[in-house]
Amino acid sequence: MSFVEIEGVGKSFGPNAVLKDFNLTIAKGEFISLLGPSGCGKTTMLRIIAGFESATTGRVRIGGEDVTRLPPNKRHIGMVFQAYALFPNLSVFDNVAFGLKVAGQGKAEIARRVMELLELIKLPDLAHRYPYQLSGGQQQRVALARALAPSPRVLLLDEPLSALDAKIRVSLREEIRSLQRELGITTIFVTHDQEEALSMSDRIVVMNAGCAEQIGTPFEIYNHPRSRFVASFVGTLNALDGVAVGEGVAAIDGQTVAVPGLAASPSAEQFTLALRPESVSLSPRPEATNRLNGTIEDVSFLGSVVRIRLRIGGSTLLFDTFNNPASPPPPRGANATVHFAPGDLQVLESGPVVLPEAAE
Amino acid sequence: MKGSRLGPTIVILVAAAYFLLPLMATFEFSLSMIRGVWSFEAYRVVFADPEFRHTFTFSVVAAVAAILLGALLVVPTAYWVRLRFPRLRSVVEFITLLPLVIPPIVLVFGYIRMYNSSSLVPLTATAGGTNVLLVLGYVTLSLPYMYRAVDTGMGAIDIRTLTEAGESLGASRGRILATVILPNVRAAVLSGAFLTFAIVIGEFVLASLLNRPAFGPYLALIGTNRAYEPSALAMIAFAVTWACMVLMQSLGARPAHKARQRR
Amino acid sequence: MSAADDAGAAVTVRGPARWQGARLSWGWLGTVPFFAFAILFLIAPTAYLVVGAFQDATGAFTLDNLAGLFSPDIVAAYRISIEVSVASAGLGAVIGFFLAYAIVHGGLPGWIRPTIVTFSGVASNFAGIPLAFAFLATLGRLGLVTLFLRDTFGINIYRMGFNVVSFWGLTVTYMYFQIPLMVLIIVPALDGLKREWREAALILGATKRQYWTNVALPVLLPSLLGCFLLLFANAFGAVATAYALTGSSLNIVPILLYAQIRGDVLYNPNLGYALAFGMILITGCSNLLYIVLRMRAERWQR
């Protein structure tokens, strides 16, 4: 059952289109992330749902009601902004109470609801503080409580974590997710951070240049990226240049590997193979029947993990091994053989060529 | 949002009328010295008046002296306080803002009482001494603007690192101030200087009460005796103010832009 | 301890010793010129008058001078001064606010804002005698606007009671530098109104009016009051414009003080000091309040 329906939404500022024919249906209670680099149109989409921007084409429905032409203050939507946007002249209590007050609720009812929400965000003692007296993480939790207070139909989160410290970011993202599950509120989350999107979402919409490149669960998006863009934007990708040499067999730098599902190509077609770093290991495993030889170019010791860069002809392969106190990592310049399962190789649709370094 | 543009447009038009009408009226009046035709006769008369040239020159010299003295006082102080006594900064800032709190007429009243011919420092006993007092008074009046401009300019560059870099290369503090810091805050000093010039050039109260032959008292005299010349003089004063402000803003915009680029 | 540790320790010991130790004892000399200047030409002259306000002719302590300020003439002068300052500051603040709002949030073409800001820089410094000349040429008996209204619409503003050499004439003239000053200081405050506050209010269901009464105006209030006080002090201390416009026909405090300095019209020098003291008191209080309010406003803008 779809609760939010976005149908053919497009948006142009003058001659340049920032959103092109965007379609998405969101089920009630679902947590959806719009993930993409800056300028991909994700924030514009969110602002169209909120009503701050009007769509050039298409329509937005919430709970079956067409809200495309409705002003923002009639949409019953909650929104959390990147820069908190707490009202500086109001206390925490009054900030959270704002939506209830303008809705004309009674004083006792407002006080009960505000305290309930402050309990929920675990800041009941700070009700009479002012925003400038709070840390960034506290401000953002208050902003969340303020957005949730009037019991909105949909919650919009516009990069709510990107202004925070790394540690608080991780704890707050877990908090937001558990709160969202508890309340069962339909949530749309805009982010450029793939880790946030992967860890929080029911489904992810990967956006690029105003289009939805792929829509799917975090598992699908990460393991089965449909385009080179998605593969490179989500996670660290090894892009290997391959040539088809037979049915299910490709050559990388002259070394043949099994690629399930690869059609035989008479013209020795060039294509790109994707390989996740975590599917590669230095030691043989029974299912890892594919092998590649190369020279170790670089070894970075990152603590629990050792990251190794291997050169295979014209391609480089980045992969991680766990730190093992008993055996030091291989030295630079050494020859090494890596092992991986044929199913870990992914043939990418030809798409815009984005190197993983450039996407980071 | 499109419908709401009507209000702002009306506000702008009314304001434009209020601000431009006096300028148009003054200009028109200044051109009508000869009955029946428009001419620059009033300007010709003004420029031909030796008193105009004398008083204007006097005020220009006083303004330049006040600017130089003010820069000499403010730049090293702002530098030294930022470098060595950051805690004194709010005290110094407060003092530099005092000339905005104490009306100039009160200030000059105090000068006249403190530095009269029977006091310990009889500055007003001689014309030269009074000129010095006038310039020092102008330095005081310009202090808020000068200090603010220079202090902001120093805030935009990292004077501590620049100083340490200079010292590590063996330069003395004075040399660092003159050859490293000053060139970096030159735009700030100049923008403060133009504002000072605009304020001092037509200043009336200090010059009049200290009895100096400055441009301000000359304006007042012409105002009571002539009909068309005052309008011509008002246009000239407006043009001078305009030139100073345009120069100041064009200078003020540049260091800010540079600072943004660096970040 | 390794050699590297030694080097590090040496640096940390040498650093503070150089900055705070040997040089500090002479470092204060660098601030002497400034403080000497401030004391000699700013603080001492003012203090001289303040002390004098509490002394009689023999130098003994007295409150007679302050009591003397309550003579009808002087009270009337303070009253007109305060009225002109309040009127020009109030109108200047309100009109300046609308003008600033129009250029910041009015959605007007891009060239309007820099043009008006530059013009405000000029007009806020175009005070004194030339300004008086300009308004005499505009609204004087033979001024352009006066004649235009009389000849075109048959409205004789002078017969209706207006006179440029009067309370309203002076107020309208003062507004020529008050409005631009307001624009210059309130534009940053209006820029500080974040777009997200408006959007957050709207999405929470508030109307534009509710946003203004609950968020925008309370946030701007310290700035608005502060600006009003600054404009008030600005008008209160102005002499040249009023002198050139009205001569001595309008009895305001700065003009009275000017006459007192020139010729002791009060026949009591110490009463003159008290007059000056009263001015410092009024401009000082309004500026102090301005600073307090500005700090409050800045605290919110973070």
Automatic annotation (TrEMBL), chain A:
Listed transmembrane segments: none
InterPro entries in the record: AAA+_ATPase, ABC_SmlMolc_Importer, ABC_transporter-like_ATP-bd, ABC_transporter-like_CS, Mo/tungstate-bd_C_term_dom, P-loop_NTPase, PotA-like, Transp-assoc_OB_typ2
Catalysed conversion reaction: ATP + H2O + polyamine-[polyamine-binding protein]Side 1 = ADP + phosphate + polyamineSide 2 + [polyamine-binding protein]Side 1
Domain ABC transporter: 4-234
Keywords, ordered alphabetically: ATP-binding, Cell membrane, Membrane, Nucleotide-binding, Translocase, Transport
A GO-annotated cellular component: ATP-binding cassette (ABC) transporter complex
Annotated GO MF terms: ABC-type polyamine transporter activity; ATP binding; ATP hydrolysis activity
Quaternary assembly: The complex is composed of two ATP-binding proteins (PotA), two transmembrane proteins (PotB and PotC) and a solute-binding protein (PotD).
Family to which the UniProt record says this protein belongs: Belongs to the ABC transporter superfamily. Spermidine/putrescine importer (TC 3.A.1.11.1) family.
Function comment: Part of the ABC transporter complex PotABCD involved in spermidine/putrescine import. Responsible for energy coupling to the transport system.
Name this protein carries in UniProt: Spermidine/putrescine import ATP-binding protein PotA
Source taxonomy: Bacteria, Pseudomonadati, Pseudomonadota, Alphaproteobacteria, Hyphomicrobiales
UniProtKB/TrEMBL annotation, chain B:
InterPro entries in alphabetical order: MetI-like, MetI-like_sf
Residues that span the membrane, as ranges: 55-79, 91-112, 132-150, 187-210, 230-253
SUPFAM superfamilies according to UniProt: MetI-like
PROSITE patterns: ABC_TM1
Domain of life of the native organism: Bacteria
ABC transmembrane type-1 domain residues: 52-248
Entry membrane topology: Multi-pass membrane protein
Keywords for this protein: Cell inner membrane, Cell membrane, Membrane, Transmembrane, Transmembrane helix, Transport
GO biological process, one term: transmembrane transport
Family membership: Belongs to the binding-protein-dependent transport system permease family.
Stated name of the protein: Putative spermidine/putrescine transport system permease protein
Native source species: Consotaella salsifontis
TrEMBL record, chain C:
InterPro entries per the UniProt record, alphabetical: MetI-like, MetI-like_sf
Segments traversing the membrane: 26-51, 86-108, 128-149, 161-190, 210-233, 240-261, 273-293
ABC transmembrane type-1 domain segment(s): 78-292
Coiled-coil portions: none
Keyword field: Cell membrane, Membrane, Transmembrane, Transmembrane helix, Transport
Membrane topology term: Multi-pass membrane protein
Keyword Repressor included in the entry's annotation: no
UniProt record, GO biological process: transmembrane transport
Subcellular location: Cell membrane
GO CC terms in record: plasma membrane
Entry similarity comment: Belongs to the binding-protein-dependent transport system permease family. CysTW subfamily.
Protein name per Swiss-Prot or TrEMBL: Putative spermidine/putrescine transport system permease protein
Protein species of origin: Consotaella salsifontis
Lineage, opening ranks: Bacteria, Pseudomonadati, Pseudomonadota, Alphaproteobacteria, Hyphomicrobiales
